[in-house]
Amino acid sequence: MIYHQTTGEFAYWYAETEKLVRCRLLSLTTTYPVDIPYYRE
Fold first, then answer.
1. What was the pLDDT predicted at 27?
2. Which of 5, 40, 7 is nearest to 22 (CA)?
3. Closest alpha carbon to 24 in 14, 13, 38
4. Which of 27, 8, 9 is nearest to 35 (CA)?
5. Rounded Cα gap, residues 30 and 10, in angstroms
6. How many Å apart are CA 30 and CA 36, to the nearest integer?
7. N or C: which end of the chain has fewer CB within 10 A?
8. 1-41: per-residue pLDDT in tens?
9. Is 1:11 a contact under the CB 8 Å cutoff?
10. What is the DSSP letter of 38?
């Protein structure tokens, strides 16, 4: 899991598909991502 401090985004790196997926967290009080990851071109 990668956190980008400038944009405040979290991202997941999937090694098997070699894709970087950015996702948003609705609540920072939980340790689980509760929003659906979205793809960016």
1. 47
2. 40
3. 38
4. 27
5. 14
6. 15
7. C
8. 666 666 666 666 666 655 555 555 544 444 555 555 555 54
9. yes
10. B
Structure tokens at 24: 């948003």
Q: What letter represents residue 41's amino acid?
A: E
How many domains, the chain? 1
What span, in angstroms and rounded, lies between the C-alpha atoms of 12 and 19? 8
Token duo for residue 1: 């899991």
Flag whether the pTM goes above 0.90: no
How many residues are given for the chain? 41
Domain that holds residue 11: 1-41
The one-letter amino acid at 40: R
Q: Which residues have CB under 8 Å from 18's CB, separation 6+? A: none
